[in-house]
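Continuing the batch. This is chain 6 of the set; chains 1 through 5 are on the previous pages. Same settings as before, nothing changed between runs. Recording input and output for traceability.
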Amino acid sequence: MAAWRALGADRPLYLAILGGGWFAAYTVVLLGVLPGDGGTATDLTRLIAAGVALGALADWHLSGGHNELGLVPFGSLGMTLLAFALAALPASAVSARAGLAFSSGAFLAWFVRPLLVFIRDRRTPVGAPVRIAATVGSLLVFAVVGAGLAAGFRAAGLAPWHSLVALGCVNAAVALFIYRLLPEFLLRFIAWLLVHALYRLERDGMHHVPAEGPALITCNHVSFADAVVIMAACPRPIRFVMDHRIFRSPVLSFVFRESRAIPIAPAKEDPRMLEAAFDTVASALAAGELVGIFPEGAITRDGELQAFRPGLARILERSPVPVIPMGLSGLWGSVFSRRHRGLMRFVPKAIAPRIRLRVGAPVPPSDADPAALRATTLDLRGQVR
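Output for chain 6:
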């Protein structure tokens, strides 16, 4: 009984299990209201199954072998749009309908596979037997509900396109509900989309990021996009300590506020905000979270790694947690860096340039000397800035 209570207390896990159940309901309704005669519906079902299989493989490839929760909102968006598209197609558009059915399967895979991997790998007091039982139970219950909905649509004499439109609307509502309660999925999607739309990201050493427990993430500060790149690459949420002025940016403000970034200001500008930032960092680490800082204190203006400021030592003195050093390269000279001035700053220098994030082994707090950490960061960054 205690394990089941712990399941309810772990909101991300609980919502992921509900999301898996909704996948079952959506799939059953979709298969139950597919337009066409028996043979056509069977062919579309096979195409959906093929799409799920290939979509799962594509998910693994796109996420680089990691579990990318950012693909969950992408999958749910595709599930909604393709339900509407299937409803809008005329019966004569056989090839287009087949293509949409295959695509629906791929989006279903992108929605559910990361959720199932998240449930499997979640470090929580809830044991694996309880997680498996809850997931299987959710799938079965929602599948029965989906079968009832599909039967109800048919009994009411609704045309397939009416049923598909209703399915798409309900899916959109469910997705908005889940992402409002658990913005981590949506934020990872935004970060993943922004980073992969602009760059070719290489990750190395991500296994050094602990699967659970507190740690202090440190990295060189090359551009305004650094935190978003790390968010897109890291398998766990990170609460970054950010200059309070970054919260004035329309898009980045939304991302950092929803990810519970910690605003900070210089002592001479706002000493209260500075002290509040250190208090929040200590509370976050005590709660077992990851906190990210840029020890240089500001974005580099010459591309070189600056001296690490004393804030790093102050954090570790109050919260002796492991330090995970990172080195980011390839962003110097981008539109988000300070290499160029004037209008030249906003002129792209390459199409989808390659950037790299390397992660070093955890450093015990007793060995986290700022000078030594700076040398480690420089080695991780390499010669390419």
